[in-house]
Amino acid sequence: TKYGDVSAANLHHLAVRHFPLCMSHLMGTLHSERHLRHGGRQQLGLFLKAIGLPMEEALLFWRSEFAPRTPSDQFDKQYAYNIRHNYGREGKRTDYTAHNCTTIVGFSGGLGDHHGCPYRRLDETSLRAALSRLHCDDGKVEEAVSKARDGHYQLACAAAFEGIHRVPELDVGISAPLQYYAESRRICTE
Ligand code: SF4
Predict the structure, then answer these.
(1) Fewest C-beta in 10 Å: which of 78, 131, 165, 184?
(2) Would residue 145 count as lying in a domain?
(3) Span 17-28, mean pLDDT?
(4) In this protein, which residues make up the domain named DNA primase large subunit C-terminal (predicted)?
C-alpha cells in the first residue's frame, strides 16, 4: 500500500484526492489554524507515517504547518520529540501503527478537538459542506449524511468514497483510513 511519492511537499495534493474525511479534515484544520491538538496530531501523524511519509519529511511538514504560530525553535522543543517517538526513535522505541476506524469512531473530543470520525462528529451542514468541497456526487452526499445520521459511519464513508471517486458500490466496507487511501490510490492512478 505504500507509494514512493509521499513527501511533505505533496501531502496536501494527496489529501484532497486520496485521504478519507477523518484525515483530510485534520489536514485542512491544521493548515488554516496552524495548529492541532494532541489527539489530532496522533491520528493524522500515525496515518501519514503509515502511508510512507519518512520521519524527516514528517518533521519538515509539521514544522512548516505549525509556523508562524509556533516558531521553529519552539516547535523543535515542544513537538519534535513526539513525532520521533511515533516513528519509534525515542522512548521505548515502539513502532506505533495507525488507528483503524473502530478506534477513531470511538474517540470523543472536547471543543477545539478535530480528531475522531467526521461522520460521527460533524453536524449535517458541516458534513455536506466538507463532502461538497471534495466534489462528491450530490446523491452520494445525501446517502452519506443519512447513513451517518443512522450511526453507520463506515457505510457513510464508503458512500462518500463512491461519490468522490465516481465508482459503483465498493465490494468491501471501509475498515481503516489506510485502506481507504490504498483503495483510492489503486483506482486513480493519475
Ligand atoms: Fe476515517 Fe474510518 Fe471515519 Fe472513514 S469511517 S472517516 S476512514 S474513521
Answers:
(1) 78
(2) yes
(3) 97
(4) 14-181
Q: Quickly list H helices, 20-99.
A: 21-33, 38-50, 55-66, 72-78, 80-86
Asked if 173 and 117 touch (Cβ cutoff 8 Å), the reply is no
> Distance, CA 187 to ligand 1 centroid (Å)?
18
Identify the domain containing residue 117 by its residue range: 101-187
For residue 180 and ligand 1, the question of a CB distance below 6 A is answered with yes
Residue 141, Cα to own-chain centre: how many angstroms?
Answer: 19
Is the C-beta atom of 98 inside 6 A of ligand 1?
A: no
Stated pTM of the model: 0.95
Calculate mean pLDDT across residues 49-73: 97
pLDDT at 84 over 60: yes
**Is 1 part of any domain?**
no
